[in-house]
Specification:
The chain is of the alpha+beta class. Helices cover about 20% and strands about 40% of the residues. A five-stranded antiparallel β-sheet has the order 3-2-1-4-5, with helices on one face. The longest helix has 16 residues. It is elongated, with a radius of gyration of 13 Å. The model has no long low-confidence stretch (mean pLDDT about 90).
Amino acid sequence: MCLGIPGLVLEIPDGYYGQIALVDVSGEKRRVNIGLLEDDPVGPGDWVIIHMGFGIEKTDAAGAAAAMSGLRMLGSGEQP
């Protein structure tokens, strides 16, 4: 298992062969490579899990919230 951060796809800019997305990650806009998700294409409004600048998994709002909750718990040092 790897740690990933959820992000909301805002747009797919022209160019880059459709492999770059502008993604909102905790309020910051980031460019994310979505080329690994070509079998399950993403578009504006979709949630993705990001690892090392790459979109590695498509998810939904509930999955994104669960991922952020887990990351916050890890950052706080709390025990489950």
